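Narrative of accomplishments. A recurring question from our advisory board has been how the design workflow behaves on a single, concrete structure rather than in aggregate. To address it, we present the structure tokens for one chain from the evaluation set, followed by the sequence designed for it. No filtering or post-editing was applied between the two.
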């Protein structure tokens, strides 16, 4: 069973794309998986919720509420979130991200959103 780590920008895209990423994962991933987030990802969302204005603040609040409602497991993390995601990708985790710079650093395969509705595996 694979563990999929969700990056901050994907959680923010829930509001932007009006997309249920969890339903999309169920539909588009043909392998057994579980979803998790890093503690640093939740910290980034909380920072966005507090410091940003209207649209971004609401998107971050929605993402935090969804993580809490779905009881998404939290991986304890210390350090830069992107660096940690790269380390986890080397340990056979799948990372779901929209961050172009991070995608270049990740070990393949990883997951990304295409056409604002599909989750695809990039090999």
């Amino acid at each position: 069973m694979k563990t999929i780590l969700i990056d901050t920008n994907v959680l923010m895209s829930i509001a932007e794309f009006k997309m249920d990423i969890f339903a999309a994962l169920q539909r588009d991933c043909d392998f057994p998986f579980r979803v998790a987030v890093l503690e640093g990802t939740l910290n980034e969302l909380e920072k966005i919720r507090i410091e940003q204005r209207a649209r971004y603040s609401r998107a971050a609040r929605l993402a935090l509420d969804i993580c809490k409602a779905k009881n998404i497991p939290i991986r304890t993390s210390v350090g830069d979130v992107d660096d940690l995601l790269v380390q986890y990708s080397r340990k056979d985790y799948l990372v779901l991200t929209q961050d172009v710079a991070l995608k270049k650093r990740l070990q393949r395969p990883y997951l990304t959103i295409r056409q604002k509705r599909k989750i695809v595996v990039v090999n």
